[in-house]
Request: fold
Amino acid sequence: MSDARPARSPSPEFASAWELAGQIPGWLTRDQALALWDAALRVPRGGRIVEIGSHQGRSTAVLGEAARLAGASVVAVDPFVEGRLFGGPLTRKRFEDNVFHRAGLAEVVELIPEYSTVLRPTWNRPIALLYVDGKHDYWTFTDDLRWSEHLPPDAEVLVHDAFSSIGVTGGVAVRVLCGSRYTFLDRTGSLARFRLRRPTPRDRLRVLAQTPWFLRNVAVKVLLRLRLRPLTRLLSHRGPHDPY
Reply:
């Protein structure tokens, strides 16, 4: 029992959005982008999507285009910190070029260049959909889940690198498996989908069923860091990057 979502044929609108978004550097796969697209289309007209962690705008472009079709809007939250993986002001410029200029989403997407953990305590606007792909340590991730306090009952929360990142998976174990607020629905690779409702015992078992896949991902990461990439093929992993 994997609870992985089956692949399906996308709409022409998604194909057009992905043609642009797929050229933006990032770690979101096409199938994961389609899952984000579908979730954004389910947002009611006038609803607000909050994205925690935007990088150069790969996922933002997908969410923004779907939000435009749905009559919704997107708030992208990213501090654009300095560092090899993040890029600081240069990454922000690339985000603005990709999302505002190339995709033409300036009227749909609002960018807030701030740490999500700093912004959250003062946030007072309702949210219809939450997408979390920020810092992957346990403490930041569990704080980012608190943005769901602004969601209505039964709303969706999507989380990238769930059952892949140790910090994020630890947060899922504590807040979802052992909590009473979130129900695990399914996943597309490491993009997990949750609903804001009390889980049943069966729902908790479905979270536990992801353990073998999580352990496989940890093993792949260890092998990659030991520069034993050929051995990752034994775990059905291809490429030099971490599984996502």
User: Anything to note?
Assistant: The longest helix spans residues 211-225. The radius of gyration is 17 Å. The chain is about 40% helix and 15% strand.
